[in-house]
Amino acid sequence: MENKLGRTLPADVMEQLQLTPFQTTEIGNPEVQRTAPQVRLSTGNDKVTNDLKKIIQENVHDGMTISFHHHFRNGDFVFNQVMKIIMELGIKNLTLAPSSLTGVMNDVAIEAIKQGTVTAITTSGMRGSLGDAVSHGLLAKPVIFRSHGGRARAIENGEIKIDVAFLGVPNADRCGNANGSYGDEAFGSLGYALMDANYANKVVLLTDNLVDYPNTPASIKQTQVDYVVEVDQVGDPDKIGSGATRFTKDPKNLKIANLVSDVITNSSYFKDGFSFQTGSGGAALAVTRYLRAAMEASNIHASFGLGGITNPMVELLEAGLIDKLMDVQDFDKVAAQSMKNNLNQQEIDASWYADPDNKAAMVDQLDVSILSALEIDTDFNVNVLTGADGIIRGAVGGHQDAATAKLTIICTPLVRGRIPSVVKSANTVVTPGSSVDVLVTERGIAVNPQRPDLLAQLQNVPGLQIYSIDELAELAQQIVGTEAPLEFTDRTVALVEYRDGSIIDAIKQRKD
């Protein structure tokens, strides 16, 4: 079976899971029926406990779906605490449905798979030893990778039905009112966890900071929470963020950032009131600072910034160069602190951010998005999930979601070491080329032939070397040479959804 991009999909798995192949980025205006969770009625007087094992024993059973959030990133203590108890209790055949899996979870997740505790996973991404193990066929069923907006859609529409959500929070009161902004492990927005809190049948909050009732502001509300479990420590604050995120000093990344800024400022989208989203990588952070200089010079301000929020975006807010920050996740302590102190930094959930089955998602309003890539091919298809070795080592994240902007820019070095970033055919397609408008490398840029209007705006800009994407791919190949093709078995280890739920690609098991 092939989809519209010509990617081969496993017909038997597609039929078994009742999935459809990707056809188009046009979502249209369908009418959808959303689901609702079961509710266990409570006065709120019996929610607090320190017996996590008892809560798991009474509420988690074979074959269930359980979820976690990744706002703590590598400072997370919740996942490992919960999963070790589940394994100790001998519970089997679970589906993991976290918003994403971070490196600190890998060892326990691998052990849970080996023991048969976990037999299925749906998530945004995985890296390191877990990605390697799954790529070599450890998991019984194919992983389903979804974007942040796609996960929100699947939860709201009932495709992901969470039986029990375990949500770590830096504060909570006895009834379950909680937020991410106060406490020693504060991380800012709870944007991804809010989906689980709203739709899981059972919601278990874990915290080391029980505060007086009623706890406000309440991002997660007492009406959603079944249990509040006190633990010794919910996370490591030193691994949640690192103050002001480091500004890259790499000359290659700085050149890319400068070229991205030139593309934006010479496009028709650079005007008063424009909106944008950037990532958290070094080049993307540098773009924000180059963009600031251009905005000040042109007396232009932005209406809103979106997505994972970073210190450079906070600096724009505080300088009056941007009106609002719409915050689904904070990538550093400065951004987390700003959400607590600044009314113009609005916490949003993943549905508001990017669910395509909404009456209006924030990504639908984006003028400009700046995104990264592990690979981009000559059809402008982008891979952010698997490495050049075919091993899972990334995340879909909000890539597909933000690529719906009016101007979507992919920034990546032409090669990384001896690995080309611009290739004839990407190992895995996450974001379709029809969503991408411009590729920016340190050697020059390529404009999607579907955008002759944009090419006309950029072709006479001083300092912008414009190539076809085929020319950039040839240049990359001249630098690194031709590698032997990767070898895979016939077994599918993962499926990649497009944000509407159709399957955009399949990942095969890597041969040893």
UniProtKB/TrEMBL annotation:
It comes from the Bacteria. Keywords: Cytoplasm, Lyase, Transferase. GO terms for biological process: acetyl-CoA metabolic process. GO terms for molecular function: citrate (pro-3S)-lyase activity; citrate CoA-transferase activity. It is found in: Cytoplasm. Pfam families: CitF. This is Citrate lyase alpha chain. The lineage of its organism: Bacteria, Bacillati, Bacillota, Bacilli, Lactobacillales.
